[in-house]
Amino acid sequence: MRIRRNSHLLALTALAALALTACEDGTGVKDEGASRPASSTATAAQPTPGTDKGTGTAPTKDTTGSAGSSGKSGGTAGGKSGGTTGAGTGAGTGGDTGDKAADTASDSRVLCNGSNTRVTAQTVARPLNHMLLTVTNTGSRTCDLTYNPVLRFDEMQWVPQAAKETQPQAVTTLAPGESGYAGVLLSAADGSGDGGQTAKKLTVAFQGYTPNSDGGASATPTLPAKGVYYDSSLTVTYWQQDMDDALSW
């Protein structure tokens, strides 16, 4: 009995030694519990391309993107269409209104001439050898004094020139009762003119809306009883709105 018990103890001791050796050199049975993570689990945890890094799932498509694009497109198209319509309407209406206003203004104005004005001629002390022509609108409509008066003393065969530097920025326009003016240089103050003579009669012709065109009836203002002396220096200004402008030349 003692020999069998000893043999049994020796066998148990040998088994325990083998188990201890296996644990130390890594060839024994391994623990398959939760203490060592499975390699498949670690691999699954890595995010795949195109997935949300936070949740590991693919991001959902923004369904409002197309609606936003459509809204932008619609807004642009609507704004453009509305702007075009508005501009077209405004331009068309404004143009029509402006044209009608211009036509109305044109219809309400006439040329100033001997039939709707009163014309006077008078010599002045200053400047020397000058005469002033005054045209007063006696009609019921606004009239235009265009360019310069065309003067003819007695039966003279030449036309006095107009001083270009006196041309105004706009046509001289006379409302009913208003007056316009022109200055006349009769002769050179230094006596340099030639062909001097005294005139007893003056005819004032009016121009139309193009140079040298017929502006209607002429006027024959009365000259001083002694007449006026003129020579080859005879020059006239353009029609002026202001008397001082007519005599400042």
In short:
The protein has 249 residues and is of the alpha+beta class. Helix content is 33%, strand content 20%. The chain has a domain at 117-243.
Structural overview:
Strands 2-3-8-12-6 form a 5-stranded mixed sheet. It has a 3-stranded mixed sheet with strand order 1-4-7. The protein starts with a helix and ends with a helix. It has helices spanning 2-25, 39-45, 64-108, 243-247, and strands spanning 109-111, 117-124, 130-137, 142-145, 150-153, 161-162, 172-174, 179-185, 197-199, 202-205, 228-230, 235-236. The protein is globular and about 45 Å long. By secondary structure, the chain is of the alpha+beta class. The chain is 33% helix and 20% strand. The protein has a domain at 117-243.
Oligomer class: single chain
Biggest sheet, strands in spatial order? 2-3-8-12-6
Shape: globular
SSE-based structural type:
alpha+beta
Number-wise, the strands total 12
Tags for this model:
249 residues; 3-stranded mixed β-sheet; alpha+beta; single chain; 20% strand; 4 helices
Helix and strand arrangement:
Elements: H1 2-25, H2 39-45, H3 64-108, E1 109-111, E2 117-124, E3 130-137, E4 142-145, E5 150-153, E6 161-162, E7 172-174, E8 179-185, E9 197-199, E10 202-205, E11 228-230, E12 235-236, H4 243-247
Parallel strand pairs: 1-4, 6-12
Antiparallel strand pairs: 2-3, 3-8, 4-7, 5-10, 8-12, 9-11
